[in-house]
Design brief:
By secondary structure, this protein is an alpha+beta fold. The chain is built from 5 helices and 8 strands; from the N terminus they run αααβββββαβαββ.
């Protein structure tokens, strides 16, 4: 759905979204922020969409075991549902979004030697790939949003993030070749992400007045 693709791009570019990121990073700088950014996007979508409802962690897929218990088989970070006369079909999303949040070393250890070592980076890559191909109610991911977070203040913080996760990696321009390699790994195709957006914010003030957090949003849309 090209219209939804454009809405997502415009929302991520908007100054209101940047302000939302600032608030998230002020309060939750010590956490991986995937859930909070998902909720920010969810609220933004519900303001922008007409006759369409965005719901977090839905649809959910499950099977019944022999004893009647429900076994969770997966869910979507955000599902979009068409609303007709106040009703929607919970098993028929018209659009599905998956969101993944990483630090640079989670993904690029083998490609940039000076970024240090990250033992489990291959697991991270395979996890992204599986989310792109996973079916839920015969519905594949329509938008995969990868968020790469860089923090230049971790050396002076008491946060339990490894300091070597602070690194400058410009996936929009300087390291675009890495971005393309990542897209090719996810899709099994010689391709690039549909869009790459970068946002820098001054935050959190409680750590340093000069603190900067950089977010790179890599958007892959199913064509």
């Amino acid at each position: 759905m090209e219209n939804v693709d454009k809405i997502i791009i415009d929302l991520v570019k908007h100054q209101d979204f940047a302000r939302g990121l600032f608030d998230i990073n002020e309060q939750f700088y010590y956490l991986k922020q995937e859930t909070y950014i998902r909720d920010l996007l969810l609220k933004s979508l519900n303001k922008a969409l007409i006759n369409t409802l965005a719901i977090a962690e839905h649809p959910r897929s499950y099977v019944r075991t022999s004893d009647g218990a429900a076994l969770n088989m997966g869910r979507r970070d955000i599902g979009l549902f068409e609303v007709n006369e106040g009703r929607f079909d919970i098993k028929e999303p018209i659009y599905s979004i998956e969101i993944k949040f990483y630090f640079p070393l989670d993904l690029f250890k083998e490609d940039l030697k000076d970024l240090g070592d990250r033992k489990h980076h291959r697991t991270d890559l395979d996890d992204i790939r599986s989310h792109w191909y996973r079916d839920i109610y015969n519905n594949k991911t329509d938008c995969l949003m990868l968020i790469i977070c860089e923090r230049d203040w971790v050396d002076s913080s008491c946060v339990a993030d490894s300091p070597n996760r602070n690194c400058t990696i410009d996936l929009v321009q300087q390291h675009a070749n890495l971005r393309k390699k990542l897209a090719a790994y996810i899709t099994d195709l010689d391709c690039d992400f549909s869009n790459a957006l970068r946002t820098s914010i001054k935050s959190p003030a409680s750590i340093s007045v000069d603190a900067t957090t950089r977010y790179t949003f890599l958007l892959l849309f199913r064509r």
